[in-house]
Amino acid sequence: MDYFPIFLKLAKQPCLVVGAGSCAARKIELLARAGAEITVVAHDISAQVAAMQATHRLTIYRKYVERSDIEGYKLVISATNDTAVNTRVSQYATQAGIWVNVVDSPALCHFIFPAIVDRAPLTIAISSGGVSPVLARLLRAKIETVIAPSYGVLAGLAEKFRETVKKQISRPANRRIFWENVLQGRVAELVFAGQHDAAERELTDAIARLDTQMTHAASGEVYLIGAGPGAADLLTFRALRLMQQADVVVYDRLVSGEILDLARRDAEKIYVGKERSQHALPQDDINDLLVKLAKEGKRVARLKGGDPFIFGRGGEEIETLMAQHIAFQVVPGITAANGCASYAGIPLTHRDYAQSCVFVTGHLKDDSVHLNWTQLAAPNQTIVIYMGLIGLEKICDALIAHGSEPTLPIAVIEKGTTPAQRVIVGTLSTLPTKIRHERLEAPTLIIIGHVVSLHEKLRWFAQ
Prior knowledge:
- The protein is α/β, with parallel strands linked by helices and about 475 residues long.
- It has 18 helices and 19 strands.
- α5 (about 150-170) runs antiparallel to α6 and α7 runs antiparallel to α8 (about 195-210).
- The model has no long low-confidence stretch (mean pLDDT about 95).
């Protein structure tokens, strides 16, 4: 993050604009909307800026800018087409300890202007860090189509009743729950339908029902969420919505930082990841933690890589929740098998190669992999092995010993669906030796079967 996003209160604050052309006029308009007291210094004053003197109460000095003109301002903006003038203004402001913006010259700026979606009192700012203002404007145009002007009315309604709600609900967590229900429920729908008076009556009624609502909210809830195979944009809409309203996020080792960043900024984050022989928390303790947090009235997002019901022990967790009468939701995720296979160009079923697909875990126990090898060695099927990297050589030897061809294709997919994805292909007899010096890192997934031979033909995701 090259620039820290921040909103400034400029009402009645002195701001200086150097320049008086069309670009300067746009900056003056923005400052005026924020209520700033604006001074303009320029040798030539355009008709557009001159006309703004009365409407925006500008103080205009028709002169060349000097060092003394810079002093005493909160912000300085240089919007001339003279590089030398812009450079001097930047130097003067820097020496005076004043934030300065030089239009189209990020190197001379302390701050830059974002593209703005104005739904007062709601404001959305988009910035490319000065790298591509055009891209920021294109994104603004997309957001403009999604965020209707009614959102400003909704924000104003929330502002009107904010203090009333604050007095009646002392706990910040409960206030947050109340406002989320309001802003996503009937009140919001009435505002969007243009029925503003009805929306205000509905909000008044909701405040009157606060005691009942807070009693219900205090019970807490757990969201068991499949975070998918790795890429953040493979999350479901429901997963994202629940993550962003959770008070606590309890997450596993396979949940990426990119996905965690999508959770609420102020949410507590608790790591409970497991590695081979190294568990941050035993499973029973994780189950108890979810119960404890929910009984404290918190909304808990339990994030698991892939899908929580496929080798994710999600069933054990919700059994505990049900036994303790804790409300919960389950949000399926794209399991690693589907995600990694798709991104590797390996279809798990194909009428010419495989009529069935089997998911198994290759986790070692007592230095052995305990699986039904006779069943797995059957022809015309695909085998997907989770957590099988450590035991890969034993897996390949066992399949060959039970009748699989040594030339049967096999692939190891490392960090599937992410920019760091690698796919290493071989056969049952060659792959264990081939990967010995590859320094593979978790997460990995193993796919065995003739469908693997399609990888070179169907690969589409850059490796």
